[in-house]
Amino acid sequence: GRDSLRIYDAMVSCGTKPDYITFIGLLFACSHAGLMEDGHIYFQQMNKVYGIKPGPEHYACMIDLFGRSGKLDKARDLLEKMDVEPDATVWKALLAACRVHGNLELGERAATNLFQLEPKNAMPYVMLSNMYSTAHKWDEVAKVRKLMKSKGIVKEPGCSWIEINGTVHTFISEDRGHPRVAEIYSKLDGVITRIKEAGYVPDMIFSLHDMDREGKEAGLAYHSEKLAVAFGLLASSPGMPIRIFKNLRVCGDCHSAMKYISRVMNRHIILRDSNCFHHFKGGECSCGDYW
């Protein structure tokens, strides 16, 4: 993100004027790096300095930036002041922020608008269902799932994959289909024990089922990306980077666990989820926990 800002400054210094697309990239960079003050300044400069009227993409970046930073009141205020009609991208950014920060009321509003704009998209249904799960509103969870079923909407199953010696190995949550399943689970159990000793605490907010703590913790332990990293630790040479891909966003608990694993196991872990690259090294992530 900060590299993008430096390139932008160099571009302007050379006399090249930014355009509509330039500001999408700039504000997107600010949102992914948590640069709220910078993003706000650039957003104001668009019209005041360069006469560029913000479009839905720019508003979506700003709402995403405020949302990631936990400033949902600012996100709501900007939404109300938009000069253009909010599109699906705007509502998705708001819904994602509400999911992270637990604003159920605003999340319901965002999801309802997405139901109308993209009636066949599973994302808002899944996000809203997850929010109800976190709030322990199991009756509402059942209603959302029933609504999805009635509309024929199917959630894309989460999976992670890793390539070792030219062969791709794919995992789903609690997967038992790999030929080395016993080794993988044994390795992962050992890794979880070690990172707990280092301070890792499973985040139950990402366990979306109505069960006791032990059951929730077990469900979190065997997410697809954790199984993939366990296999990577088993099958790759010591010290080699472990590269994992995931078709959905990494959950907050797995993101936290990966930071601990990178430090405790002394491995560079690259996780490419549906949103961005995460480089875990020495207990830190390149995204700065904004993703």
TrEMBL record:
Signal peptide: none annotated. Keywords: Repeat. InterPro entries: DYW_dom (IPR032867), E_motif (IPR046848), PPR_At4g14850-like_plant (IPR046960), PPR_rpt (IPR002885), TPR-like_helical_dom_sf (IPR011990). Residues 199-291 form the DYW domain. The keyword Repeat applies. Belongs to the PPR family. PCMP-H subfamily. PANTHER family: PENTATRICOPEPTIDE REPEAT-CONTAINING PROTEIN, TETRATRICOPEPTIDE REPEAT-LIKE SUPERFAMILY PROTEIN. This is DYW domain-containing protein. It comes from Stylosanthes scabra. The lineage of its organism: Eukaryota, Viridiplantae, Streptophyta, Embryophyta, Tracheophyta.
